[in-house]
Every structure is written in C-alpha cells, then in structure tokens.
Amino acid sequence: MRRMLTTCLVSFCLMAAPLSAIAFDTNADARAFLNTVGSLSEFGSSEQERLLNLRVQDRIENDDLQQIVEAASIVGTLQSLTISNGQDITDISPLRETKLTSLTLAGVFLLNDLSPLSELPLERLRLELDPGLNYNTQDGQLPIGPADLSALSLLELRSLSLRGLSGVTNLNALSKMQLESVGLEEMYNLTDVSALKGMPLRGVTLRRMPIDDLSFLADAPLENLDLSEVSIRDLAPLSGKMLAEVRLVDLPFVGALEPLRNQPIKHLRLQALPAVADLSPLSELPLEGISLSILPAVTELPSLDKSQLTTVALADLPQITSFRQVFSPTLSEVSLASLPGLTTLDGLQGAPIKRFSMSGCDAVTSLEPLSGAPIQWADLSHSSGITDVTPLATAPLRDLNLSGTLGVLTLSPLQGKQLRLTTHNRALFNQLLELG
C-alpha cells in the first residue's frame, strides 16, 4: 500500500511540474515537447535550416513561452508562431531570441509592452482580444491589453490585424509603414484611421468600429474590402478601384452602390443594407459568386449577363419574385432562403448545379426546372410547397435533407440511389431502406 501511494504521489508531481522545469537533451525531446503544447510543422526547410511553424492552443504563461522558444531553437528556426490562449502572458521578451516573420497573439489582456517585437523581422502580426470575454484582474479591473503601438513603428510589416484592443485610440505609430493588408475589428475607441492614408493597401477589413470615412483609401490599390457594422455613409472613395472581392455587411447608412460600377469584382456579398434599393451598378460586374441577403428595399435583381456565376445565395429578400436575371450557364451552387415572393425556379433550367439549397420559399411548388441537373447535394428543408422529388430522379444525388418538408410522402422516384437522407418522417426512412 505504501509503495502504491508513493508511486501515485510521484506521478502527480511530474504532471504538475511547470514547463520551465523540462530539459531538452536531444532534438527529439524538443520536438516532442513542441508537439505536446501545440501543432508543429515545417515549411521551406533545407539541410542547413529547418523553418518552423508552431500553433499553441493551450493556455500558457511567461515561463512556458520561454520554454517554447528554447525548444524551437533546438529543432530549427521558428518563423511563424500562433498563441491562441495568452491570457496569462505579461512578458514576451523571450521572442527577442527568435527570427519570427509571422506572429499571432490572442487573448493577451495582461500584455502592455510590445517592445520585444521591435527588432524582429516580422512581416505579419495579429494581436487579438475578445471584448466579450469576462477576464478581470485581482483588483477587479478589466485589462485592456496593449495600448501603445509605438514599438511597432520600426517594423517592416506587410500585414497587420488588430482586434479588441480598446486602449488604442490612434494609429499614428503606423504612419510610416507600407502595409499591404490591414484588419481592424472591435476597436471601439479608434475613430481615426487617417494614418493609413498613402499606404499600398490591397486588403482592408473594418468590423464593428466607429469609422465613418473611407477617404484614407482614395489612393490605395485596393483589391479586397470587408466592411461590417461601421458608420460609413459614402462609398465614393472606392470609385475607379480594381476591387476583386467585396463584403458589405450591416451598413445602415450606405444607400448607393454606384462606386462599385465597372469594377472587376468576382466575389460580392451584400447583407443588411436597408437603404440600398438599386442594384443596377452590379450589372456589368464579372461576378463568379454573389450573396444577397436582408435587402428590404430591393424589388428587382440586376441583370448579370456579363457574369460567369458559379455560386448564388439569396436570402431574406421579401420583394423578389424571380431570379431569372442571375441565371448563368456556369452555376454550380445555388442557395435560396426566406424568399416568400418567389413562386418558381424558372431560370435554373440547364444550369450544371451540383449543390442546391432551398428553405422558406413556400410559394415554390415544383422542382421541375432542376430536372437533368447533376445535383449531388440537395437541402429542401422547410419547403412546404414541395411534394414531388421526381425531377431529382436522374441526378447523381448523395445527400438529401427533407427536414420539415411535410409534403413529400414518397421517395420512389429515387429508387436505387445510395442516399443519405435527413428527415423527421420515419416513414420516409423506411421507404429508403426498402428502395435501397
């Protein structure tokens, strides 16, 4: 009994030992440790140098960071590091010993000093806090993470992403940078981003921020733009750009899309734009994918004859009765949701659709326009108007969702298919087994 108790105590002590107590005698020991605390991979390695990418999901402390840097130095050259749970990190000075070109620090509420980053060859940096996380210090105060960005001023960053850093009130420290990509999210005390003006920005993301002016983008060679829950009223600074991807979500004050006209946009998402009524500026775009949702003032879809659409998603468009205008002979994926005015799927005939989804389109009663389409995946959940799946008989169907579609009472047209069925109707399940 005494021997068993002693063994248990020893095992407990080993498990409780801090990471800093671990010694690495061999490369294999160090590699095993890194794969224990995170996910280690190599890229661009040679006989002379092993370039390492490490993603750490576990919650770590200062000593743990030191241990990670030491272990990585034995295995190779740590170039990319992601720390997902840095709530207890107050000191990142061990990173001075690395040659990091890419760094992500998430959850670093207690970190104030970014100066250890000032001499690193960083090209990509992401600092991320979750403003919704309830993390209080011993004195009951909510820490705000890094507020002073001056330590970044000497870095030659190409990409910078900041999220939830409520202590940051300006970006003046970044004014001499030549950023190509910037992402700012939930920076609630940052109202002025004019320091970004003149940078060769190709990708910009602004989400959930009190920003109301895009003039800083006037001269930027912008290609990708993501605006969500900001106070922008005017898209005029986007005129004449060469945008390829645009995402505009929850912008209550934007009313005109004219600045998007004649741009080489291939992928477009418009969602929750209550003041937008005219979609005609989209008619000349060479779109490959479009998503339109929650546009209550839109009564008609634009004609997209110049597009080569492969994906279309339409949702919560109460006044839309037809989507013939968005037909494309290249369509492979279609999603329709909450379109109470839609009565027919006419316009889809002949399209090589492989994935089709429809729900909340109760006035649609026939799938006939889909006949002959090579559909492999179909979601017809909550489509109360559908009673017949015969138009899918020739499709190479593999997955079918009929949850809440009470009108379909037989699957006999689908006899012989190896089908994965989702339904609340047990009788349909039994039919599928019998037809198998």
Structure, explained:
- With 436 residues, the protein is of the alpha/beta class.
- Helices cover 11% and strands 21% of the residues.
- The protein has helices spanning 2-16, 27-37, 62-75, 426-435, and strands spanning 38-42, 51-59, 77-85, 102-106, 124-128, 159-163, 181-185, 203-207, 224-228, 245-249, 267-271, 289-293, 311-315, 333-337, 355-359, 377-379, 399-401, 420-422.
- It has an 18-stranded mixed β-sheet.
- A hairpin with an 8-residue loop joins β1 and β2 (51-59).
- The longest helix is centred in the first third of the chain and has 15 residues, at 2-16.
Name the descriptors.
single chain, 436 residues, alpha/beta, 18-stranded mixed sheet, 4 helices, globular, disordered N terminus
